[in-house]
Design brief:
mainly alpha, 226 residues, single chain
């Protein structure tokens, strides 16, 4: 329960930041749809989706035995026809969310080490808890970064792959997006070892981050195995 209380608020903020980044990038590419609909905000209430934000994280937590938890916020609406340059705009907007998560993971790592340096001389239980929450921030944002780059429609990675395909093949490939995340869920639950394979880059990045934090850890960090 302790770990859950630390992880869920961080996960919610990370998912909201991901969608906010999409909306902001779309606005800068000429599409005000998210802004006009009141979705260009960090207010989590505007981004909560019953399935993606609540059911999926709980389900993944149960299925993985508490090792993996991820989900998503309600996708920010965008209208690519408003982009000043469709191809460039779609690539930028699709990349914005994952880059936001990568940036948050890096920021959490920097802050976690900083708290370790400061807290080592203060012996503060609160600082230790904050550092543990930041460790969750690193892991969850790495997860969101890696999962969203999987080239299965409608994930962000599918938009990037789409533009690398020949037009006819790209069109047929993108039509798979009509099935939502069903393809990803089917892959995870039907193909043995699929989840572990998809998350291999995430585990590698996590091990690196935890190795950086370990000398400065102020207390136990279950997410890092410390």
């Amino acid at each position: 329960m302790h770990e859950l209380l630390l992880a869920l608020p961080v996960l919610l903020f990370s998912m909201v930041a991901h969608e906010y980044a999409h909306g902001l990038a779309a606005l800068r590419q000429g599409d005000p749809t998210a802004l006009n609909l009141g979705r260009l905000t960090l207010n989590p209430l505007k981004h909560i989706d019953p399935v993606l934000t609540i059911l999926m994280p709980v389900l993944m937590l149960v299925v993985s035995g508490g090792r993996v938890v991820f989900g998503g916020a309600k996708p920010v609406p965008v209208n690519p026809s408003n982009y000043r340059d469709y191809r460039r705009g779609d690539i930028i907007v699709s990349s914005a969310g994952v880059l936001a998560n990568l940036g948050l993971a890096s920021a959490c790592l920097t802050l976690a080490v900083g708290l370790g340096v400061v807290g080592s001389s203060l012996d503060s239980a609160l600082i230790a808890v904050l550092q543990e929450m930041l460790a969750w921030g690193i892991w969850l944002n790495i997860l969101l970064f890696v999962i969203n780059l999987v080239p299965i429609p409608p994930l962000d990675g599918s938009h990037l792959l789409y533009h690398a395909l020949p037009p006819a093949l790209g069109k047929r490939y993108r039509e798979l997006g009509r099935y939502g995340l069903a393809g990803l869920m089917l892959l995870i639950f039907v193909v043995p070892g699929a989840l572990g394979t998809l998350l291999t880059p995430a585990f590698v990045l996590q091990r690196f981050a935890c190795a950086v934090i370990e000398p400065w850890a102020l207390g136990p960090m279950q997410v890092c195995g410390l």
